[in-house]
Amino acid sequence: MIEITDLHKSYITGNTSLHVLKGIDFSVKEGELVSIMGSSGSGKSTLLNILGMLDEADSGTYTLDNTPIKNLNEKIAAQYRNKFLGFIFQSFNLISYKNAIDNVALPLYYQKVGRKERDEKAMHYLEKVGLADWADHLPNQLSGGQKQRVAIARALASDPKVLLADEPTGALDTKTSYEVMDLIQGINEEGRTILVVTHEPDIAEMTKRIVNLKDGRIIDDRLVNQIKAKAHV
Amino acid sequence: MFNIERWQEIFDTINKNKLRTFLTSLSVASGILILVILLGFSSGIENGVRTQFEQDATNRISVSTRVTTKGYKGLNPGRRLQMTNKDYENLNEKYKEQIEYKTSLYRSWGGQVNYKEKQGSYRIEGVFADQQWIENATLSQGRYISQSDIEESRKVGVIGYQMKEDLFPNTNPIGKTILLNNNINFIVVGVYTDPGGSREESRLFIPITTAQKVFNAGENIDRIAYTVKMSDNFDEAVALSAAMSESIDQDLRTKFSVAPDDRVAIRVDDTLEEAQKIYGLIDTIRAVFWFIGIGTIIAGVVGVGNIMLIVVKERTKEIGIRKALGALPSEIIWMVLQESIFITAIAGFVGLFIGVGILELVGPSIEMDFIKNPTVDFTTSITTVIILVVSGALAGFIPARRAANIKPIEALRDE
């Protein structure tokens, strides 16, 4: 599903060049649930941004679902993001003046899906995350966990190949974190490929594979015995 | 472009920022308001000046002689110059190609006119039939003086509407006999109205031949008036008319031996040249008003542009989210542009309607000499609407570009 080889990325600020990714080789098969771990500055967010086509690598190759991702202009990047990827952010990033169902329907709007179908699909995914009754609520009427579940529904709405979650539990308390992880595990069980960036070991243990980054290199890549979040809820 | 979802988003943002939107709209609305009022008044000035001007035909040349003020070729100043029928006929013959309507005129300033027990003092003017067209008079009753009236020196008269009001308040004046200066009876054959108003309508026109007889004037005439044939090109007509006036002036100076620089003795007035100057002045006034109005709108547009920049800044994160979810740059541009056009258009329409409303309400009561019935016509309204949409688009363009260039990665970075 994801294939990257020898990925390099530097940021130039003034006269100093910061080499963030120093040759990453990494692949993810369909249906995997992978966590990317590392301390701050390890390059894990940069890697996720490149995977999410929000940023571009200096060198190296990136193939997503057999499509080479290169020479992206804004327009193509937007189309690929919409087609291939679903994003889940630490700070949810819901649009504050749209209610839950409209937030979920937004990626479908950019896919030019008609209004009726959009609302049906959005409602379906809201049911899936258990928030059908909250469809008309604005984000500020929802709790943190509920917001993240709306965001997950939104990420799923466009039926993406890969879900990219950047610290999805970073803004949540432990109990809510586990509820969210339970949901993510459930989605993975249905066969969806998911990448989670986190610095919390207990969250990482709930995925099926942990990739450890340090100073721009993968220092460790191992399969783990997944801990079911449900047991802790 | 029409897209319910996008409109809903625009209404959502506007709803969220009522005060900001209101203040922005206010600047655009007042800009348009000022433009509309200015344009209304420029059309009012135009109407006023035109009415003042079109009391008489605009393509008129009028010739009169007075007393010389300068000596010339051994002749003393203070000579009274008297034109006669002969002068009139000579000029008619010489300029027959250019002349449209022609009349000579003999007048008596204060003639006493009686009808039964009513009486009044009026100007009596002996004229040819063409006077009706040269004077821009409209017959409200009866007929004007005819060629046969002139040939037979009939004692008939055409009275102004003011005279009819004075002497025949409740009766039909046609066919009635009026008494002039207590000794000569005239039969009223017509009543005329004149755009010049009651002063112009307080005159009695009689055949020139009759006038010369009853006032013992012999062959004398006081004034000659022509209208010149108009060509399609206004500037060309002005030039022809000016050349003809100049030439008539020369003819009379030669005939009467008048100094070339004696401007009092012989006067040849060319209204067309005056008209051109005044129309030029109106054009200038209109241009100045447009300039001020457009300037005001530019100020409003800059305001909208500024606000939209702030809007884009405030919505950076939202736009980042949208782009991460797959919004194309063009969709982001349209979103911002449409909001900007929407705000300017709505605010502008409000300004337009208030402006037109004020003009409709106040306009009719403004009846000064040079401002009359200020209104904004349909074309002007359409023009302002187009200006609005274009300026809305201009105001939104830079902010929209900025929005489209937002990098989702930067917008979504957690602070």
From TrEMBL, chain A:
It comes from the Bacteria. SUPFAM superfamilies: P-loop containing nucleoside triphosphate hydrolases. Keywords: ATP-binding, Nucleotide-binding, Translocase, Transport. Residues 2-233 form the ABC transporter domain. GO terms for cellular component: membrane protein complex. Pfam families: ABC_tran. Belongs to the ABC transporter superfamily. Macrolide exporter (TC 3.A.1.122) family. This is Macrolide ABC transporter ATP-binding protein. It comes from Nonlabens dokdonensis.
From TrEMBL, chain B:
Residues 291-408 form the ABC3 transporter permease C-terminal domain. Residues 21-238 form the MacB-like periplasmic core domain. Coiled coil: none annotated. InterPro entries: ABC3_permease_C (IPR003838), MacB_PCD (IPR025857), Macrolide_Exporter_MacB (IPR050250). It holds the Pfam family MacB_PCD. Keywords: ATP-binding, Cell membrane, Membrane, Nucleotide-binding, Transmembrane, Transmembrane helix. The chain crosses the membrane at residues 21-41, 287-312, 332-358, 378-398. The keyword Membrane applies. It is a multi-pass membrane protein. The keyword Kinase does not apply. One of its GO terms (molecular function) is transmembrane transporter activity. One of its GO terms (cellular component) is plasma membrane. It is found in: Cell membrane. Belongs to the ABC-4 integral membrane protein family. PANTHER family: ABC TRANSPORTER PERMEASE YTRF, MEMBRANE COMPONENT OF TRANSPORTER-RELATED. This is ABC transporter ATP-binding protein.
